[in-house]
User: Fold this.
Amino acid sequence: MKQDKRKIIQNAFIGVWLIALITIWIGKTHTSHQFCPYASVCFGAMLPNGYTTYLISIIIGLAIAISTIFLGRKFCGSICFFGTIQERIFHFKKSNNTIIIPTTLDFFLKSLKYIIFFGTIYFAYTLAAFRYMNFCPVIALSFPMQITIFGATSLLIIFVGSFIIERFWCRYLCPYAAFMNMFIYLGKILRIKRKVIRVNSAKCISCKLCDIACPMSIKIVNNSQVNDPNCIYCGNCIDKCPKHGIFYK
Assistant:
């Protein structure tokens, strides 16, 4: 099954991320920026000011974002540490029921990640990146002994939010998700073909099991394909379809 393969990939990368965190916790590494793809924005915005620190991280983070033009946000669904942790938190409880967010409120909440994204660029470009980094969950997790009230609040919001709403951080607050979405929109403008989740309408019985299974609350039923940039290619809809009418192409 698709989910079995994805969980193997997720577990493998959880191990990679944990090793990276341990090297920070024991003092072998003194910063988390070289492990975080969002350094492509945090430090990339500093390049015009002559700062070339973490250039490799900037290149890797940018490459991942650019890849979404062709592959979508697979990074979020299978590789991202926070993405996997959120899934495990949500499914840890006995009931996997999530709160249904009204459409208007959902639209507003989804815009927050873009506000955070542009805020990050502004603070980084003006060499005031520390203002964002006070809230950065990656830094808070990397340096628990030095955590600030702002960092602790960020982690609390992410973990409590993820217990109630599946992938709360991914859906509403992650600025790197906003960055990737922008490349997906760019691909659409340039008419670059991207692999997407497709639905065989001839097999669809409108049971809506695919909609219920989607952790990003995307409406899949009655559509020929999923064009929503927030799709993380988790494959839940494919596995839940009783008619095997959903596929990835």
Q: What stands out?
A: The chain has two domains: 2-189, 196-249. Residues 196-249 form a domain with the Alpha-Beta Plaits fold (CATH 3.30.70.20).
